[in-house]
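Hi, here's the filled form for the chain we discussed.

Project: internal
Contact: R.S.
Residues: 725
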Amino acid sequence: MQHRPTLLAIALATAFPLTVLAQEVERQAAALTSGEIAYNRIHVQVKSDFAHAAGHTGRNAIVAVLDTGLDGKHLELNTQLANSRMFDATTRKWVAPTDGDGHGTHVAGIIAGSTGTGYSYGIAPDAKLLAIKVFASDGTASSTTLANGLKTAAGTRGVSVVNLSLGGTGPLGATFENALRSAIASDKLIVAAAGNNGGASPIWPARYAKESWANGQIVAVGAVDANNQLASFSNRAGDTANWFIVAPGVGVLSAYPGNQYAFMSGTSMATPIVSGAAALLEGAWPQLTAGQVASILFQTATDLGDPGTDAVYGRGLLNVERAMQPVGTLAVPLATSSKKAKRSTATLRTSVASWSGLRAAALDGGFRGVAVDDFNRDFATDFGTGIRAPAAERIADALDLAGRSLQFAEQVHADGSRFVAAVEERRPRGLRAAEDARRSLVAGSAVFRLAGGQELAFATGSLAGAYFGLAGTDHALANPYLCLARSSGQLAFGFTRDALSFKAGVLDAGLNAAMGRQHEWSEVRGGRAAITELNYALGRDGTIGIQYADVAEQDSWLGGVAGDALALEQAGTRTITAHASHRIGRNTVAAAQYSIGRTADTRGKGLLNAAENVRSDAFALGLVGHHALTRDDRFALTLSSPLRITRGTATVAMPVAITEAGETVFETRRVGLAATSRELKLGLDYAAPLSRSSSLSVLFANRHNANHVTGERELQAGVVYRASF
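And the returned structure, exactly as it came back:
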């Protein structure tokens, strides 16, 4: 093969040495020089500058350059060599790196020219170069010489990319093809010039990319100008469109022998741009196979020409910025499973109890790790951003509830049995609203008095659990641990002997599910609670009691709800509550309760492996009364501290890296769960009927250290007037 001009190993365009500029070149620091910024528009065109800004510079990647040689003394290249010697494939000897032509030096500078040294710099400025000379001094190269050079590249440890800015108009023979197959079998990425004769398809070896044995590891490269239009000299994608990509190849500035620089044009200049991009990928993620690197470059290319892959631009313009970003859906490697969880499931809607401690752990970096894309590339991820604050306590929601059109029907039998039903009447908007009104059962309870002081108690909806403790006095005084078994139905029994009374029962979401099928409760989730309670009457006006409950949550942990990646399972809490109440006057009751809990048996299959030694508490004080200002009004003044974790840790198995073998490295961490402060909430709830068809509700809440976060304050107030027509 002739080196000049039929062998398209050269730029096939005039090289203009910048002698004057070269005389001014001095060794600079790593920061870009003004000349590098001004003259290197290719970085902006393929967006490699974004990759550099993110810290991706090709470090630890090695690119073999099979070309005319390399000027090893050039300021751009003298620190970039993987080997101080150059392999001369024409003599099969290792020699000092030199370049009597300039083409190889120019190509090498485009791939890995250093920064801060002059007027150009490489796409992968921290990559290393293996120089292999395949052209004789007379400008000729044989397929045997090319094969020798390719074998050397494939056999050199650390080489991942082979740049072939060369080609011929026909197949290069069995000797070269065998060497090419061996290089592919050795997991080398071959980046080859498409050729400069304006043809419909690439020349060889780029055209081998379409062969099945190429295994997607050969990238054919065409050239575009500064406007992303195919250069007039560049061959098109043709029959290699699926493995064809384009890059800038017109007026590209790079190193030239003798510490000079030159603008050169050709697919030979576009090819090392792609090789440099491949080196960025290899340097950042050495676990990638050659086929994966090629696939990433193809999938992330900017579409040019006809939509999709076409016969002119192939897959489109190299886009380094996109290539260095995740491809596909990010996933979370899990230490407990070979499967990965979707990154979108790394969420945890915390409860008031758990938010403060988990928030502090997240701010301290306890949940920083990596997620992986479709190519198992790791990307730094702070999973703590998925740990979200509890749903806000909106006064509007409470006002809406206060203003609901609820009708309570109560029957009390002579034996003391009591039945309560809460019914909501819904009237759709429109002229036919009255005709379309629907009545729905919201909650119900029944207490059957039996002989011997015994009783059976059933309840559904919001009345479930009101049989126990102080919940029947006011919802703000309900045991917060029982609220963890939300959406449950109640089945209980009790008996009374003189001043002593005993109660036992269960709250279970399954009981509510049966009712939900008969009524309109669409969301039936929660858990269960087994409860025993002992109360002692202090005369006619006072009561003290103690309650034990074993609470098991479903799809939540202390009220928090998580996606798969942050889910905790088998969460069980045992709690003891002491409560007391005393009637003050005829219509007012003072009440107090304090609860402590221990959450154990907590395991997870995601990032959170377990929660250990978790302790929590809550308390509430309240005055509840009737007929305070008007007849039949009702008020509740409460001071409470919501459920909070007082101590405990969580074990986190955090993925932190992917090894060169593609295996995930996990780091076991222990993060604290204890709240950093205690919330105190002062609340007032007042409701009064104004007439048979109107009512007034007033709500006020002042939260100090809201959600147990120091310094957080929340003040809300609202008034609802409701009238029926």
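Let me know if anything looks off before we file it.
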